[in-house]
Amino acid sequence: MKCGTATHTKASGAYVDNRATMTRSDGADGGTEGRTPATDGGERGDSGDVRLPASAVADLRASGRRRRALERLAERGDAMPVTDLARRVVASERGEPAETVPDDAVEAARSDLFQRHLPKLTATGVVRYDSLVGTVELATDDPRLLGDDGEASGRVDDVVAPE
After folding, report:
1. pLDDT of residue 27
2. Would 72 disulfide with which of 46, 88, 155, 159, CB 3.0-4.6 Å?
3. Do 126 and 35 contact (CB within 8 A), yes or no?
4. What single DSSP character describes residue 131?
5. Which of 141, 127, 111 is nearest to 69 (CA)?
6. pLDDT at res. 52
7. What is the mean pLDDT of residues 31-40?
8. Which candidate, 67, 65, 48, places its Cα nearest to that of 57?
9. Which domains does the chain have, with CATH numbers?
10. Rounded to whole angstroms, how far apart are CA atoms 159 and 65?
């Protein structure tokens, strides 16, 4: 590991490395070559990719709104604006066509997605959010996340948006 600063000499155009070299107590160089990434208890899928641990899947599926968002993204198959996702989620919650969902209910669901659900889904790599265009897309095909388990869990965050 190096400490200190590197300087650039204007006259010669060369960089001078005046950092002190420190050695690790275990003799390693501190690099990551040859190491395997931490999986936090995850499982390896058939293709060798690391899957989320069962506890993370359970946490992500604990919210009815998050489950419905994942289902709508899976149905779509590609990126969609967050507002469209919010409209489809509310329509699913109410059991009505997306075109009939009032804009205030869509805005409330959009805010809820941004504040509570998308942060968890993006941090775990389940969805990708493109902040430049405001779209979100499913980034996994893990069937544990997309399975249908029937009724909502009954948690407080499963409250259906008001009409």
Report:
1. 52
2. 88
3. no
4. T
5. 127
6. 87
7. 39
8. 67
9. 63-158 (1.10.10)
10. 8
- The tens digit of pLDDT for each residue in 14-29 reads 544 444 444 444 454 5
What's the half-sphere exposure (Cβ side, CA atoms, 13 Å) at 117?
24
CA distance to 2, 3, 27, 65, per residue, from 22 (Å): 6, 7, 10, 51
Q: What is the 3 state secondary structure string of 82-126?
A: HHHHHHHHHHHHHCCCHHHCCHHHHHHHHHHHHHHHHHHHHHCCC
**Which one is predicted more confidently, 95 or 17?**
95
CA-based nearest residue to 105, from 65, 137, 67, 72: 65
Q: Which residue in the block uniquely carries the two structure tokens 């997605």?
A: 113
Higher-confidence residue: 28 or 120? 120
From CA 57, how far away is CA 120, in angstroms rounded?
11
Query: Who wins on pLDDT, 134 or 25?
Result: 134
Q: Are 143 and 119 a contacting pair, CB within 8 Å?
A: no
